[in-house]
Write a structure and sequence with these properties.
The protein has 388 residues and is an alpha/beta fold. 38% of the residues lie in helices and 24% in strands. It contains eleven helices and 13 strands. The strands form four sheets. It has a five-stranded mixed β-sheet, with helices on both faces. Helix 2 runs antiparallel to helix 3.
Length: 388
């Protein structure tokens, strides 16, 4: 019996999750901060804070964002699409907002999923697990059913929905995908994150609303995840080596999401940057310590581009330089905070540069961390590294 147990143990295989294909996408309306500010200044709900709006938008370190509705860029509405907000009051019911969410989210996620599958070089019939992530819209039947129908995925596809985990939800999605492919190494998982913040616009006379409408934007990202043995990995290929989660103590007010009569809203505490600066060092050190590594071993940092103060305080808490956080700053500048897909936009830039280094015969990145933040406040992250 002991011999048999020993034999079975030797035959046990270890599989490493990898991102076989990754794709990102945005709606067609590209909004400059200058134009977005004009819309905010016209809203009756912002009359009491109009004196600080210019400073909030100017200090955001955001140049452009993308929106799924034409209301912020009427000059780009060449197809004469009907405006979603009929007047400057932005008074729209939650029911109408969710209907619009479905209308604009479905084609966006289907397109991004197709690109991710094509980049992975797999067949649609190879996908057996679907993970859909969103905090800006809720439906039943949900986007998972629409994706299965539009892509022609098998009707037997296993489905998971992750909602209201905010900006960190992609990390939770990766965790579900990792668990699935390690248990089913002969199958592929498709993770898709989509956020349509523009359909939840409701300008109110508060600094918080001014801030969230100055930074939040629309976007989607998808990844095909599989699991392979070490011997099957390409030279220099990065695997999703581990994940790590920590609910910060005493930070419950940091990020609060709510569903209201006039849409889904987010409240960010003025103490949130402090919570991040205070707790991220311990979070990262614990994560790295599990594998006998330190911050000096980290080749790249994919910090969630949640806003200027979020990136700055993550840098301060970790001792990360502006150059090391350059990808996060670049995504924030061009896209704003798209919530859950944002960190995947950062990873897309990292992977592109990594592949370019490998193509030049260089080692590429040996190890890096990607992380973002959820209501709680929770820090959620993954470690990517070479294992050859």
């Amino acid at each position: 019996i002991m011999t048999l147990m020993s034999s079975n143990k030797k035959k046990e295989k270890k599989f490493f999750p990898i991102m076989k294909g990754l794709a990102t996408g945005n709606p067609k309306y590209k909004v400059t901060q200058k134009d977005a500010l004009k819309v905010a200044l016209r809203a009756p709900g912002c009359e009491g804070i109009s004196n600080i709006l210019d400073r909030i938008y100017a200090n955001s370190r955001i140049l452009t964002r993308y929106m799924a509705v034409p209301d912020f860029t009427p000059e780009q509405n060449t197809d004469n699409e009907e405006l979603f907000y009929t007047d400057d009051s932005f008074n729209v019911s939650i029911q109408d907002r969710m209907e619009k969410y479905k209308e604009v989210a479905v084609p966006l996620v289907v397109d991004v999923c197709k690109k991710a599958i094509a980049n992975a070089g797999v067949k649609i019939s190879d996908i057996h697990k679907l993970i859909v992530v969103s905090s800006t819209g809720f439906l039943g039947p949900s986007l998972d059913c629409e994706i299965i129908k539009c892509l022609g995925l098998p009707r037997t596809t296993d489905r998971s929905l992750i909602g209201f985990m905010g900006c960190a939800a992609a990390m939770n999605g990766y965790r579900v995908a990792m668990d699935y492919v390690k248990a089913h190494p002969d199958k592929y998982a498709l993770l898709v994150c989509v956020e349509i913040s523009s359909v939840n616009t409701h300008f109110k006379d508060s600094t918080n609303n001014a801030i969230i409408h100055a930074i939040f934007a629309d976007g989607a990202a998808a990844a095909v995840v599989s699991a392979v043995e070490k011997e099957e990995l390409r030279k220099g290929q990065l695997v999703i080596y581990d994940d790590h989660s920590c609910l910060m103590d005493g930070t419950e007010d940091g990020i609060t999401l709510s569903i209201n009569d006039d849409g889904i809203s987010c409240k960010l505490s003025k103490f949130l940057p402090q919570y991040i600066a205070k707790n991220m060092g311990g979070y990262v050190d614990d994560f790295l310590g599990k594998h006998g590594q330190t911050r000096a071993d980290v080749d790249f940092w994919a910090i969630h581009p949640g806003g200027r103060r979020i990136i700055e305080e993550a840098q301060n808490g970790l001792g990360v330089t502006e150059e090391q956080a350059a990808d996060s700053w670049a995504v924030l500048n061009e896209y704003g905070n798209m919530l859950s897909p944002s960190v995947m936009f950062v990873l897309e830039r990292v992977f592109k540069r990594h592949e370019e280094m490998l193509a030049r015969g260089e080692e590429g990145y040996k190890m890096g961390l990607a992380f973002s933040f959820s209501p709680g406040v929770g820090a959620e992250g993954i470690m990517l590294r070479q294992v050859q």
